[in-house]
Amino acid sequence: MANVQMHAMRLFRELGYNATTVEQIAEAAEISPSTFFRYFSTKEDVVITDNYDPLLIAAFEDQPSDLSPLQAVRNAMISGMDDMSPDELETMRERNQLIMAVPELRGATLNNLIQTMQLLTEIMAKRVGRKPDDLALRTFAGVVVGVNISVMLYYAENPDKDFSKLIDEAFSKLEDGLLL
Questions:
Q1: Res 16: pLDDT
Q2: Taking the domains of the chain in order of start, what are their residue ranges?
């Protein structure tokens, strides 16, 4: 999967997202188009699919129980990024810029973020002893996802910034009551 994504990102840089075909990606990765579709449902999925959710869950579950839910999520997200190699961070930056630049990718990412919101609701419910359909938990998860969206957009416009520091700063503002 990572090999296919690596070739896709290279082709997107060279040819542009819209000009790159699944067939070109498959050929570059030395697989058939049907094999491509075993890994990814659509061309958009090759950009938005990642392994961050399992890492987020593990990092969240490792957070001390005395932290507030917001502190636990914040620490989990930052620790996940701190564990990334420079190449992984660069790939994340490239993917983020592409997602924010291509309307089809923004739409596909929204679906992905809704799934992440549901996942956050479930792991938070377990942590605080509530049911996952609790409106407060869903609202909390929506706020966390909203912070991520705002930072992703800011980062796409300011790629020289440190994504981890931006996430930390955004959550800090939220924790302080987001005074404007």
A1: 92
A2: 2-43, 50-175
CA distances from 112 to 52, 53, 83 (A): 11, 10, 22
Query: What's the CA gap between 129 and 145, in Å, rounded?
Result: 21
From residue 110, give the alpha-carbon distance in Å to each of 100, 123, 138, 165, 175.
11, 20, 16, 23, 24
| Contacts with 96 (C-beta within 8 Å, 6 or more apart), sequence order | 152, 155, 156, 163
If you search the block for the tokens 């966390």, which residue do you land on?
144
From the first residue on, what is the mean pLDDT of each consecutive set of 10 residues in the chain (180 residues)?
A: 86 93 94 93 89 82 91 88 78 85 88 88 92 93 92 88 91 85
Q: What is the pLDDT of residue 27?
A: 94
Q: Is 121 exposed, middle or buried (0-12, 13-18, 19+ CB in 10 A)?
A: buried
Region label for 178, one of left (φ > 0), alpha (ψ between -120 and 50) or beta (otherwise): left
Class of domain 2-43: mainly alpha
Longest C-alpha distance within the chain, in Å?
Answer: 53
**pLDDT at 33 (0 to 100):** 92
* 50-175 has the same fold as 2-43: no
pTM value > 0.85: no
Domain at 50-175, CATH class:
mainly alpha
